[in-house]
Structure formats: structure tokens, C-alpha cells
């Protein structure tokens, strides 16, 4: 079976750092994605990890450990506009990099002043 | 990144009718995916739209309910047939490009 787990909700303070965890058990693995989704909008691509380690992109970083089936998204210097849902998704094994994505339930992050 | 457009952006439909959603990409892509996002939920894959062959459906989704066309490498349609209120969702198409995966703006469907 396939299972992707994330916390349902998190709250953090403006200017702080927050880490959103994602654990997965999938029948195949060809990369892990993080998306940001504001209410009423489509998901926006944030990061992609296929090898173990940390990928940094501005205020956002994503980490992957394939042996542990674990990833996290780190958001630094939180801003009010970072209040959104954060979706973890695993890409299965398909034709090269075109395998389908399986999504977790998403983590709703609320940033407070 | 790929530029993806969808039509319509939203619609309100009556029970028992059908709606066809269009997805247009600004570049040729081998595979296109259709997702559904029910209210307050995450995204669920409906099917993979393959050019030149039938779509591949995920468990719980069938061709009679969600027929898909893929006439060329830049365009696909998803039809939601014989709609019921439970079909009220956002429907999104998605394409992979350069290892990343991008989503269209979505079609918000409300069934009365």
C-alpha cells in the first residue's frame, strides 16, 4: 500500500522557524515534492528531493532521508503570507521523471503576529 | 516552467448533467495527469492521460464516469458525467517538466 503522513495543523509566530514533517511508505520512489497551496488557489511547486540531504531555496529548505522514508520542509523567517496548506507528495516509479504523484493530506500552517 | 490553462475556471451545474474541462499546455508533454481536490481535502489522482492510447485510471475512478481525451501532446479534456453533489470539487490538470511537476489553475465545480 501507499501511505503519506503529515501533521494536520501547525501554528507558528511571525519571524520564527517551523518544520513540517512528512513520512511515507510507497511501493516505489522517484522523488518527493513539497507544494504550497493558498485557499482557493492551485498548488505551487516549492521543492523537489530525489537524493538524500538538504535542498535550500531562499527561506525554504527541504530534507530527504530515503532510508527512513522521511522528509521535512523548513520555513525560516516566517511571514504572514506563509499561512497556507503545505502538501507533501511522492512520485512513484514511472517513465523516467513522469511518474504520478501521490499526495499526503496536507498541513495547514497558521502564522500569527 | 510549463504554462497550463484550464477552462472553465468554475461552473455550477445541475445534478445529472455532464461537464467537460479543458487543459491546455504551452509545450508538448508526454504525460498529463488529472487530479481532484474535494473540499478541505488533499489532491487525489483520477487518471493519467496518455497521448495515442486510453487513459489509465486510479482505483475508485472509472472511464464511464470520467472519460478523458488526449488528442495531442498539448491538450486534454476530462468529462465529469452524470454529476451528483459529491462531484463538487476542484479539478486540476498537471504536467511533469524537467523533473518538476506543475499544476493548472484548477476548475472549481459545484453540483446542485
Uncertain residue ranges of chain B: none
Chain-averaged pLDDT of chain A: 92
Main β-sheet of chain B, in a few words?
Answer: 7 strands, mixed
Number of continuous helical runs of chain A: 0
Radius of gyration of chain A: 14 Å
Average per-residue pLDDT of chain B, rounded, comes to 93
For the report, how would you describe the main beta sheet of chain A?
6 strands, mixed
β-strand amount of chain B: over 45%
Helical segment count of chain B = 0
Order of helices and strands of chain B: EEEEEEEEEEE
What do you see in this structure?
The complex is a heterodimer of chains A (113) and B (112). Chain A is mainly β. Chain A is 0% helix and 55% strand. Chain A contains no helices and 11 strands. Chain A has strands spanning 3-5, 9-13, 18-25, 32-37, 44-49, 53-57, 60-65, 70-75, 84-91, 101-103, 107-112. In chain A, strands 2, 4, 5, 9, 10 and 11 form a 6-stranded mixed beta sheet that branches. Chain A has a 5-stranded antiparallel beta sheet with strand order 1-3-8-7-6, with no helix packed on it. The model of chain A has no long low-confidence stretch (mean pLDDT 92). Chain B is mostly beta strands and 112 residues long. In chain B, the strands form 2 sheets. In chain B, strands 2, 4, 5, 6, 9, 10 and 11 form a 7-stranded mixed beta sheet that branches. A 4-stranded antiparallel beta sheet of chain B has the order 1-3-8-7, with no helix packed on it. The termini of chain B are far apart. Chain A binds chain B through residues 31, 33, 35, 41-45, 48, 50, 87, 89, 91, 94-95, 97-98, 100-106, and chain B through 1, 30-31, 33, 41-45, 48, 92, 94, 96, 98-106.
What would a concise description of this structure say?
The complex is a heterodimer of chains A (113) and B (112). Chain A is mainly beta and 113 residues long.
Helix and strand arrangement:
The complex is a heterodimer of chains A (113) and B (112).
Chain A: E1 3-5, E2 9-13, E3 18-25, E4 32-37, E5 44-49, E6 53-57, E7 60-65, E8 70-75, E9 84-91, E10 101-103, E11 107-112
Parallel strand pairs in A: 2-11
Antiparallel strand pairs in A: 1-3, 3-8, 4-5, 4-9, 6-7, 7-8, 9-10, 9-11
Chain B: E1 4-7, E2 10-13, E3 19-25, E4 31-37, E5 43-50, E6 56-57, E7 68-72, E8 75-80, E9 89-97, E10 100-103, E11 107-111
Parallel strand pairs in B: 2-11
Antiparallel strand pairs in B: 1-3, 3-8, 4-5, 4-9, 5-6, 7-8, 9-10, 9-11
Amino acid at each position: 500500500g501507499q501511505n503519506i503522513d503529515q501533521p494536520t495543523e501547525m501554528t507558528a509566530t511571525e519571524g520564527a522557524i517551523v518544520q513540517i514533517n512528512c513520512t511515507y511508505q510507497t511501493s516505489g520512489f522517484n522523488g518527493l515534492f513539497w507544494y504550497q497551496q493558498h485557499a482557493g488557489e492551485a498548488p505551487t511547486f516549492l521543492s523537489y528531493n530525489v537524493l538524500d540531504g538538504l535542498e535550500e531555496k531562499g527561506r525554504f529548505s527541504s530534507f530527504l532521508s530515503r532510508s527512513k522514508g522521511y522528509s521535512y520542509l523548513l520555513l525560516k523567517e516566517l511571514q504572514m503570507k506563509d499561512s497556507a496548506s503545505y502538501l507533501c507528495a511522492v512520485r512513484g516509479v514511472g517513465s523516467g521523471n513522469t511518474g504520478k504523484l501521490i499526495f499526503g493530506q496536507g498541513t495547514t500552517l497558521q502564522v500569527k503576529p | 516552467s510549463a504554462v497550463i490553462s484550464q477552462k472553465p475556471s468554475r461552473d455550477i451545474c445541475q445534478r445529472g448533467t455532464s461537464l467537460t474541462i479543458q487543459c491546455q499546455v504551452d509545450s508538448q508533454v508526454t504525460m498529463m495527469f488529472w487530479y481532484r481536490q474535494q473540499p478541505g481535502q488533499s489532491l487525489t489522482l483520477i487518471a493519467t492521460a496518455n497521448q495515442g492510447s486510453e487513459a489509465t485510471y486510479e482505483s475508485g475512478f472509472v472511464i464511464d464516469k470520467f472519460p478523458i481525451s488526449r488528442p495531442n501532446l498539448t491538450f486534454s479534456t476530462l468529462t465529469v458525467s452524470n454529476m451528483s453533489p459529491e462531484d463538487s470539487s476542484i479539478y486540476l490538470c498537471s504536467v511533469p517538466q524537467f523533473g518538476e511537476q506543475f499544476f493548472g489553475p484548477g476548475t472549481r465545480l459545484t453540483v446542485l
